[in-house]
Amino acid sequence: NWLDFGCGMGHNAAVIREMVPAICITGADIGEGPLEALRRGWLDACVQAPIQELSPEFQEHFDVVTLHHVL
């Protein structure tokens, strides 16, 4: 399970999906981007929330977390 935090429009997820097709990718961002990435099939799930509002269940759910271009 992979969490791409700050996923934007999901371009990193698209690359990940191409390299590892069987992986489950969740994208998280505060904008509308995750919904578009989900529609394109680059994400399996999405969350629209800032990091401090993510559910505690996320703490041990992901094997990999990426934060590209997150300030």
Q: Could you give a short description of this structure?
A:
This protein is of the alpha/beta class and 71 residues long. The protein has 2 helices and 4 strands; from the N terminus they run E-H-E-H-E-E. The longest helix has 9 residues.
Describe this protein's structure.
This protein is an alpha/beta fold. The protein contains 2 helices and 4 strands; from the N terminus they run βαβαββ. A 4-stranded parallel sheet has the order 3-2-1-4, with helices on one face. Strand 2, helix 2 and strand 3 form a beta-alpha-beta unit. The longest helix has 9 residues, at 11-19. It is globular and about 30 Å long. The model has no long low-confidence stretch (mean pLDDT 87).
Secondary-structure blueprint of this entry?
Blueprint: E1 2-5, H1 11-19, E2 25-29, H2 33-40, E3 45-48, E4 64-66
Class from secondary-structure proportions: alpha/beta
Look at the structure and give the mean pLDDT.
87
The best one-word shape is globular
| Helical percentage | 10-25%
| Biggest sheet, spatial arrangement of strands | 3-2-1-4
Through-space gap between termini: 23 Å
% residues in beta strands = 15-25%
Integer-rounded radius of gyration = 11 Å
Name the helix and strand elements from N-terminus to C-terminus, one letter apiece: EHEHEE
Number of helices: 2
Low-confidence stretches: none
Largest sheet composition: 4 strands, parallel
Task: Give the tally of β-strands.
Answer: 4
Give a quick set of tags describing it.
four-stranded parallel β-sheet, globular, 71 residues, 4 strands, alpha/beta, 2 helices
